[in-house]
Design goal:
two-stranded antiparallel ribbon; mainly beta; disordered N terminus
Amino acid sequence: MRWFVVNGLPPFHDENRRAEAIRHSGIRVGEIIAYRAWRVGLWWLWQADDRLRSIYMRDYFWQPDEPASGDVRTHGIYSFRDMVRSRQEYGFPIGDGEILFGRVKIWGEVVEHEWGYRSQFARIISLDHGDPALLEQFRVIYGVKVAAGRDTA
């Protein structure tokens, strides 16, 4: 797997370049449930601490009342096929600060990768793993619960 840094932005996989040339196949599927992580905490002193943030895109905040969105031919919304519960399982460097893990529904244009997806839209459906106090705080903000049968360990 090769990663590139372009214009000081976070690294992205060279599959992004190939995705630019992909023509839509016309295949349509229902929504997909995937897994991802979010950063909690201040990146800059002037920003409020009441929104989850993207791990890599420092200025991308997940809004509670609207889906996350991105152009899949450049970045999109990344998520994993398998559950992620810890920094070790995340598999990529994520830096310091608190991290919460959960599930998202993804839809729109979706590019499948080896470990997951890059989608046009995503909405948080559960916050499942991480600091218990932060999980409760952000479950209220985003109007989600822990997934049935999951703990917060």
